[in-house]
């Protein structure tokens, strides 16, 4: 894999391009976008990237083609690259593999559900491979997505769950952080201190769980000294139904993803 092209140079395409450039020095990058300002920003961040005027010319030059356009813009792009025989990776939400494979009869297709922390190299993604994808294609996609964070290969029908959990998840986590910050401010902390303490608490907790392999319930018990401050807070939190509310929130997002895909 020596070259990757992006049809669509928006935030997600640019973030992936930056991740690939960091992980694979010397990789050749191409970009094509109808909006000149996006192309300019892509080139400003990745000066070595080559610009192509049309999707078809990009698909002819890049070994791996990323469809990084909005779902409503997919149809004309698919028509423009219909003749391609490349590995095509779509990050267009809700566009199923069956549609992609029908529109691109000679291509090997992979569908990815990334999330916005990709913008800082901390993506959590799920992906599904089409029927024509080879073992080498799988290894290529795994390596590319791994440069931007974590990615798991799944059956396509599970991508709606990925959408609900990690695709929409950053918005839900941001709401929780927002509440932490507000609580700190109400208790008298300066806003900037409340923000930094909240961000570090979330980041540190995730790192601790990830690096130790500890289960969340183990950490809860570790921090919960009998008759202590954490137990006092847990009594309020756990009585509020917060756990079930979060489960239902993610399930609602996953259901909507499925509806949009149909």
CATH superfamily of the largest domain: NAD(P)-binding Rossmann-like Domain
Number of strands: 8
Overall geometry comes to elongated
Biggest sheet: strands side by side, in what order?
Answer: 3-2-1-4-5-6-7-8
Summed up, the domain count is 2
CATH overall fold name of the largest domain = Rossmann fold
> What series of H and E elements makes up the topology?
EHEHEHEHEHEEHEHHHHHH
What value does the Rg take, in angstroms?
A: 21 Å
Q: Please, how many helices? A: 12
Output mean pLDDT.
Answer: 96
The CATH architecture name of the largest domain reads: 3-Layer(aba) Sandwich
CATH class value of the largest domain: Alpha Beta
Name the beta content range: 5-15%
User: How many strands, which pairing sense, and closed or not: the largest β-sheet?
Assistant: 8 strands, mixed
Terminal CA distance: 33 Å
Residue windows where pLDDT falls under 50 for at least 5 positions: none
Concise description?
The protein is of the alpha/beta class and about 260 residues long. The protein has twelve helices and eight strands. β5 (about 85-90), α5 (about 95-105) and β6 (about 110-115) form a beta-alpha-beta unit.
What does this molecule look like?
The chain is α/β, with parallel strands linked by helices and 262 residues long. The protein folds into 2 domains: 3-158, 3-Layer(aba) Sandwich (Rossmann fold), CATH 3.40.50; 169-261, ProC C-terminal domain-like fold. Helices cover 55% and strands 15% of the residues. It has 12 helices and 8 strands. The protein has helices at residues 11-23, 36-45, 55-61, 74-80, 97-103, 135-146, 159-167, 169-186, 191-212, 216-223, 229-239, 242-261, and strands at 3-7, 28-32, 50-51, 64-67, 87-90, 108-113, 123-129, 149-153. It has an 8-stranded mixed beta sheet, with helices on both faces. α1 (11-23) links the parallel β1 (3-7) and β2 (28-32). α7 (159-167) packs across α12 and α8 (169-186) crosses α9. The protein is elongated and about 70 Å long. The model has no long low-confidence stretch (mean pLDDT 96).
């Amino acid at each position: 894999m020596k070259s990757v092209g992006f049809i669509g140079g928006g935030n997600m395409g640019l973030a992936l391009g930056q991740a690939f450039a960091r992980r694979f020095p010397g990789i050749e990058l191409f970009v094509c976008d109808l909006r000149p300002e996006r192309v300019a920003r892509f080139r400003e961040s990745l000066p070595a990237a080559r610009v192509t005027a049309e999707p078809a010319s990009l698909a002819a030059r890049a070994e791996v083609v990323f469809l990084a356009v909005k779902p409503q813009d997919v149809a004309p792009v698919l028509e423009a690259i219909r003749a391609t025989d490349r590995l095509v990776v779509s990050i267009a939400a809700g566009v199923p593999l069956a549609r992609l494979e029908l529109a691109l009869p000679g291509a090997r297709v992979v569908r990815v559900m990334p999330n916005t922390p990709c913008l800082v190299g901390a993506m959590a993604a799920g992906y599904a491979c089409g029927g024509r994808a080879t073992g080498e294609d799988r290894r290529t996609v795994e390596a590319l997505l791994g440069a931007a964070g974590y990615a798991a290969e799944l059956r396509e029908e599970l991508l709606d769950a990925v959408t609900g959990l990690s695709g929409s998840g950053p918005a839900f986590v941001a709401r929780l952080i927002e509440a932490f910050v507000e609580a700190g401010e109400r208790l008298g902390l300066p806003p900037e201190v409340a923000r930094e303490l909240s961000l570090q608490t979330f980041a540190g907790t995730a790192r601790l769980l990830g690096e130790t392999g500890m289960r969340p319930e183990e950490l809860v018990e570790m921090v919960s000294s009998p008759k202590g401050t954490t137990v006092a807070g847990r009594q309020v939190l756990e009585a509020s139904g917060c756990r079930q509310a979060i489960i239902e929130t993610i399930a609602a997002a996953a259901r909507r993803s499925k509806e949009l895909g149909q």
